[in-house]
Amino acid sequence: MSSKKTVYVRLKEGVLDPQGVTINKSLKQMGYDDFISVKFGKFFELEVKADSADIDRKIKEVSEKLLSNPVIETFTVENN
Amino acid sequence: MKFGVVTFPGSNCDYDAYAAVRHVVGEDVEFLWHQSTDLLNSDVIILPGGFTYGDYLRSGAIAKFSPIMDSVIKFANSGGKVIGICNGFQVLTESGLLPGALIRNDHLRFSCKYVHLQVANNQTVFTSVCNKGDVLKIPIAHGEGNYYNFDGDIQTLEDNNQIVFRYCDEKGVLNKQSNPNGSINNIAGIMNKEGNVLGMMPHPERAVEKILGSTDGLRLFESLQVAFSKISIGG
User: Fold this and answer.
1) Residue pair B53/B83 in contact by the 8 Å Cβ criterion
2) Chain B contacts of A69, Cβ < 8 Å?
3) What gap in Å lies between CA A11 and CA A70, rounded to an integer?
4) Are B105 and A67 inside 8 Å of each other by CB?
5) The predicted structure's pLDDT at residue B232
6) Residue in chain A lying closest to B183 (CA)
7) Which residues of B touch A71 (CB under 8 A)?
8) Which of B26, B65, B129, B157 is the most exposed place for a label (fewest CB within 10 A)?
9) pLDDT tens track for B175-190
10) Phi then psi dihedrals of residue B149, to 5 deg
11) Would you say domain B2-234 falls under CATH 3.40.50.2000?
């Protein structure tokens, strides 16, 4: 059986997030004055082959090398 | 002296760079295909502007794994001259050849216009024919040119004189109004510590003939010509 992993990529604390700021401005204009801030991020759903070995290490590796840019982003992995 | 211009899927300034070098600067130049690993004995590699791999994931993030980039990284690490323009600058930061990252413009819009650049460092192979503080008029065309790095790393860039170009007004004054994307310290172009890898968001290859609105981009190519004529004469 295959398994699923989700990698969440977020901007590091302190990195300018113009998209998040703009989304929050738009929310305010829509009348939702409830949010102190909005952070924009992305996630990747990885469907893992059943016979795959050492997958946690590999996911960490690809998250560092490709899915995130360690200069500006952090990532977390979730098992689904 | 020979230039090599890399063509990635989605590069769209490769012909501009090629034409500027061949027809205006008058030096030898060849295209380098992204699937190849052969730099064809180029003295200077240009990573041109465009939208490599559709800018999927992050600008430049996929291009760094192209076969040609293995050779470019080896070439750069052994002192070879590399220039990344616009998307090429993004490829250089993603590859780790230059520090920092280029994030979304602070105003979220794609900016396509002429800007002014202050030559912040003229003691480089890319700017030696300029005086420090010279103002160059060169166009930009990007949505993600907002140079970001941590405070400590920005200080390191400043201390090592790695900042080559800064956005300024036409008189050379650095201010917020002349910063087109929100870059820290008005940074428009930086080089590595060794001084052989340059990344810049503005497009010098688009400012090489009067009819284009400016010839200031030529200064970069002329500086390289000077550097290479010295190398070939003096060794």
Assistant:
1) no
2) 58, 61, 94, 101
3) 9
4) no
5) 64
6) A16
7) 93, 99-101, 148-149
8) B26
9) 999 999 999 999 999 9
10) -160, 165
11) no
Q: What pLDDT does B213 receive?
A: 96
Instruction: Pick A19's closest partner by Cβ from B99, B104, B148.
Output: B104
Homologous superfamily, domain A3-79: Phosphoribosylformylglycinamidine synthase subunit PurS (3.30.1280.10)
Q: Where are the alpha helices (DSSP H) in A11-78?
A: 18-29, 55-62
Nearest CA in chain A to B98: A71
Q: How far apart are CA A73 and CA A16, in angstroms?
A: 11
Which residue from B57, B100, B182 is facing A16, i.e. has the nearest CB?
Answer: B182
Asked if B203 and B114 count as a contact pair (C-beta separation under 8 A), the reply is no
DSSP letter at A11 equals: E
Q: Which pLDDT belongs to residue B32?
A: 98
Residue to mutate among B53, B55, B56, B58, with most A CBs inside 10 A, is: B58
Q: What CA–CA distance (Å, rounded) separates B222 from B126?
A: 8
Annotated domain spans of chain A: 3-79
Backbone phi, psi, residue B229, to 5° = -70, -35
